[in-house]
């Protein structure tokens, strides 16, 4: 988590060579960041600064953007969508992680973390975000989500 925080706060050029970027993340996060900021503070800073969509930074702003409110008590489905959006910061598409997303949903359903109703809610949330233009449409993934 320390490396992710360091990357979020200090590395602007994500196109830099992966090796150089990783070395900077490891060295500075371990030798500097860990020494001045505790893990709880790091998590708080990370959740306040992580990018969820273009110009949408931090959990509170993401909740407002995706759900139109300031409610902190999210459903499991809403929480899942926010977690998935963090992984999609490159674009607003429901795209490259199709296989991973569907696999995660199936696993969460199989271990009873998400119910069938939760998965229906995830599908509804994505459909609403597509209608609002906040996520690009990918009919294949929506269709597959309905079959989980």
Automatic annotation (TrEMBL):
Signal peptide from the UniProt entry: none
What superkingdom heads the lineage? Answer: Bacteria
Q: Which residues form the Glycosyl transferase family domain?
A: 1-84
Q: What is this protein called?
A: Glycosyl transferase family 51 domain-containing protein
Q: Which species does the entry assign this protein to?
A: Helicobacter saguini
